[in-house]
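User: Show me sequence and structure for the first protein, then do the same for the second.

Assistant: Starting with the first protein.
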Amino acid sequence: MARQYLLDTNICVFYMRGMFDMNKKISAAGIDNCYLSDITVAELYFGAEYSDHPSKTMGITETFISQFKILPFNDALHIFGREMAYLKSQGRKIENFDMAIGSIALKNNLVMVTDNLDHFSRIRGLEIEDWKISYPK
């Protein structure tokens, strides 16, 4: 079975901006093997609305999002609570949205694709790849 991936928001932005050959990397992984979280979708919509050209950016964003299956946060709530409690007890808390996205990756047994290694590496058991610097394994 092919590896499957959850794309972090920054990876999606790199793709939409034509950076780091992200289009080739997603293609190499297989677009059917790549997923978005509903948290990432919300962040992408925020970015589009807040941009200098919302109508243009929204069109690009919606076209990008339509290519992927979107996974819900509600299925990963228990993982979120468990991992946030653990990290807080260790004095290593991370941003809530990153924890939510990482929890979705864990719940669905997906490799987390991000260049935010600092935050996501704190989540126990989460496999991470940084496609900004490498191709999918």
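Switching to the second protein now.
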Amino acid sequence: MSGDGLDGVDRTIVQALRADGRATLATLAEASGLSQSAVQARVRKLEARGVITGYRAVVDPETVGLPITAYVEITPLDQSQADDAPERLRDIEGIEACWSVAGASNYLLLVRVPSPSALEDLLGRIRREAGVSTRSTIVLRTYFEGRPVLP
């Protein structure tokens, strides 16, 4: 067992579920060499331990009307203000992710919007709601993302 508490069987199950979150117990059993009931017990334990935190559909943003993707760095205008930007921005539509980062900025946002003007409007809202300055990088093309990473 490694330092993360996952043995080889757990890693095989997690890898299979990362590749296909809808994999059947039969598929997981075949991949791991366990019975379906043993695999089901392992999956439940992995969920209970927080290794597996959920299952989701992966949607192509362009096909649902969100062709503009950008990374937005945010930095408080006043470094002495409360550091609560994630809470202030949590419910704003268009912001898909927020990460605390090391470097010149405090946070990095992943945003998806339908148009350049919608991005401009969203940036203005982010600045107002969180009292921050922004620096944006617009994605021109995505070659790959969301690739399964081996645990």
